[in-house]
Amino acid sequence: MPSPRRVLPLVPVLLCTLAALAVPHAAAEEGRGAAAGPPDDGGLSTRVARLYREAARATDRYEADARRLEQERARAGKLDRLLATKRREAEVIRADVGRYARAQYRAGGGLPVTAQILLSGDARALMSGQRAVWRADLALQNVIDRSRRAERRLAEERRRAEERRQRLEEHSAELDGKRKRIESTLEEARTLLQNRADASVAAGSCRGAVRLEQPEPSAPGTWVTPVEEYALSAGFGQGGVRWASRHTGQDFAVPIGTPVRAVGEGRVARVSCGGPFGIEVVVEHPGGYFTQYAHLAAVTVDQGQRVTAGQWIAQSGTSGNSTGPHLHFEVRVTPRSGSALDPVPWLASHGVPLG
């Protein structure tokens, strides 16, 4: 029979073992995300954010160039029409000159002016008529010269317009190629970012918050949309097989890695990973309202952190129960699901209508 001294020390060992096994489970259930995973150096998220801005700038430059090119094409078309009109006018003038010359020849019989004077019965009348003819010839020649100068000027302007158009087309093609290369690189980085987010959700623990370069802070008391550019997709209360009952928020269709903004100032009440919402952030605002940002690819804030309106708090993704890249946005009266209200009129009441 074993001695009691050898049995008693096993009790604290067993208790410690059970406690150690229980701690990871409790941590996963409690935080599922309050920075339980390994810290994130932010390299990939920073790269996505940088490429996101570069792609936006490249697109803006390309679209501005396309507008200039369209204006140059319109200007060239207008010059073409003016030049065609001027050439038709010149043809009419040349035809009139021909008729005038033939009439003069018939009237004078092809004789020199001196001979016409000698043969004329009224030399004074002939000279007066001849001066009128000279003046008419001079006026006609001036008209011809002006027409030719105008035609040459229009032709030169049209040539320069064509050169500008060719340069713009070459520049536009160059910008388009650069834009496509940036977007291709961005798409690859987005895929990596989402793969890492999916791994975090599968593990049930978030990586640490990444630190991104923030935009200029908004004025206190202002409100903004959760993403700057978007297309609205599924709305509040919408039915469908994707939800257990009704859709509890407003979806914003945006690419992976799009900066997600706090709609107003407040405090980060929850950061979590796992479950149907994937990676999510919940912000508490003054007045007792909470906003939720879900299906994220990365977060840029810590639980308990104060945030301002427009501050980047995350990057969008398609983690959790998601059919494609988008931001799921909710307004709640508690930090937990089940207390959501329609976010569209709520945002509108805060001066933020959704277009």
Descriptive report:
With 355 residues, this protein is of the alpha+beta class. Helices cover 52% and strands 14% of the residues. Strands 1, 2, 3, 4, 5, 6, 7, 8, 9 and 10 form a ten-stranded antiparallel beta sheet that branches. Strand 5 and strand 6 form a beta hairpin. Helix 3 packs antiparallel against helix 5 and helix 4 packs antiparallel against helix 5.
From the alpha-carbon coordinates, what is the Rg to the nearest angstrom?
40 Å
For the residues shown, what is the average pLDDT?
A: 79
C-alpha termini separation: 82 Å
Total of helices: 6
> What letter string, H or E per element, gives the SSE order?
HHHHHEEEEEEEEEEH
Number of strands: 10
Helix content: 40-55%
**Which runs of at least 5 residues are low in confidence (pLDDT < 50)?**
1-41
Class per helix and strand makeup: alpha+beta
Using the alpha-carbon principal axes, give the shape: elongated
Q: What secondary-structure arrangement, pairings included, does this model have?
A:
Layout: H1 4-7, H2 10-30, H3 43-108, H4 113-119, H5 123-203, E1 231-232, E2 250-253, E3 259-261, E4 266-272, E5 279-285, E6 289-299, E7 306-307, E8 312-316, E9 327-332, E10 340-341, H6 343-349
Antiparallel strand pairs: 1-2, 2-9, 3-8, 4-5, 4-7, 5-6, 6-8, 6-9, 9-10
